[in-house]
């Protein structure tokens, strides 16, 4: 029985770690968006406000997947859904 | 990583058992802090500003108003106090962790509530402007087939807002806790004494990033998202 | 009623808690009213009051400037008017003076001519008188001379004739002043 619990705990921790690999996607995507926004601002500094709010909007949508990964990781780590 | 401490509970006649957690206590502290700050900033204001506090208060109001107007247009000027309230609650809720209290925003109940308030506001203002049918018609755009996707993305708005803020604050808290434990282990390992003196200065530097920077950033993003969602939902065609 | 939990009761990290939700909503509302009542409204009122005062000051300044401009215009007009009047006065005065001087001149001329006439008349009178006097004197002298002649050998006829002759001659003498 103890063995089962230990395996579940270990698997949950590994699963949380694996879930956080999803952080790569938003990282690349948001970095790309921010780079493009910098280009846009340097080309048209007067439209800075619009560019930044549009970029943040896009980043936020791109970040959604990362946040879902974070939620899954937190659930696996702290909520213990499989009952250790 | 510990859970949220339940400080005390009491029975109310019709409402059942009221549970006061650490989060609730800390959020009351935040409210008192904001009240005190407001009273100090606007204490004895004069027509010609001489005191730093009044200058700071005016700067704060004007900056927030400019922030709101630049994102939502000048007809949403009256929305400024809500953004100030949200920003203040969020920022002080995050920064309260600098005083070794648990941050208010590291509780999913708090951030999700704020997200749901934003969600309700989006649809309240949308319905007030376009009517119920006009609001629902937005779900069928650009083509009716996308209805399920649109419903999911609408519902994902408060969830993603809440989890983003919660995740950032919690990540900061988790990393702080891990650093504390790691430093304690490191002192024992390196010097063989039970007094974890490495815990004195090192976490402060790291919490500068994990608490201060990400707390301010998340408060800013939460307010920006609230404004952008509301102004998008009520955009005039 | 209030019950402290002696043991370290802990709520899970993702556990929903309706009381936390309710208190969060309450606190958000509370913070909203606090910010609105104690920060936003007083600061806005202050800013509005300042703006109003500034615009009033500007209005007053504009009014004062307008006043000053109209006053300046009035003064300029008045000055122009005064200049015109002055030039009129000067010209009328010079006209009058010219008239006067002419009058004076004519008067003087008249007086001078009158004086001249009078002088001429006087001279003529003097001359006449002098001629008469001379005539008398001459006749007296002639009489004297005649008497002296008579004392010697002259007749009355000679006497008479001599006088006549003498007078004739004497009348030819031109008198000079």
Which characteristics define this entry?
heterotrimer; A: 84 residues; mainly alpha; F1FO ATP Synthase; 3 helices; 0% strand; C: 177 residues; 2 helices; 3% strand; rod-shaped
Question: Could you characterize what this model shows?
Answer:
The complex is a heterotrimer of chains A (84), B (237) and C (177). With 84 residues, chain A is mainly alpha-helical. Chain A has one domain (2-77): Up-down Bundle (F1FO ATP Synthase), CATH 1.20.20.10. Helices cover 83% and strands 0% of the residues of chain A. Chain A is built from three helices and no strands. The model of chain A has no long low-confidence stretch (mean pLDDT 86). With 237 residues, chain B is mainly alpha-helical. Helices cover 69% and strands 6% of the residues of chain B. Chain B contains six helices and two strands, in the order E-E-H-H-H-H-H-H. Chain B has helices at 22-41, 52-72, 80-95, 108-137, 147-191, 202-233; strands at residues 4-12, 16-21. The N and C termini of chain B lie far apart (49 Å). The relative contact order of chain B is 0.12. With 177 residues, chain C is an all-alpha fold. Chain C has one domain. Helix content of chain C is 86%, strand content 3%. Chain C has helices at 18-152, 156-172, and strands spanning 2-4, 10-11. Chain C is rod-shaped, with a radius of gyration of 66 Å. The chains are: A mainly alpha (84), B mainly alpha (237), C mainly alpha (177).
Instruction: Give the CA-CA distance, first to last residue of chain C.
Output: 162 Å
The major β-sheet of chain A equals: none
Tally of separate domains of chain A = 1
User: Fraction of residues of chain A in helices?
Assistant: over 70%
Overall shape of chain C:
rod-shaped
Class inferred from helices and paired strands of chain A = mainly alpha
User: What do the pLDDT scores of chain C average to?
Assistant: 85
Helix-strand blueprint:
The complex is a heterotrimer of chains A (84), B (237) and C (177).
Chain A: H1 2-19, H2 24-43, H3 48-79
Helix pairs in contact in A: 1-3, 2-3
Chain B: E1 4-12, E2 16-21, H1 22-41, H2 52-72, H3 80-95, H4 108-137, H5 147-191, H6 202-233
Antiparallel strand pairs in B: 1-2
Helix pairs in contact in B: 1-3, 3-6, 4-5, 4-6, 5-6
Chain C: E1 2-4, E2 10-11, H1 18-152, H2 156-172
Helix pairs in contact in C: 1-2
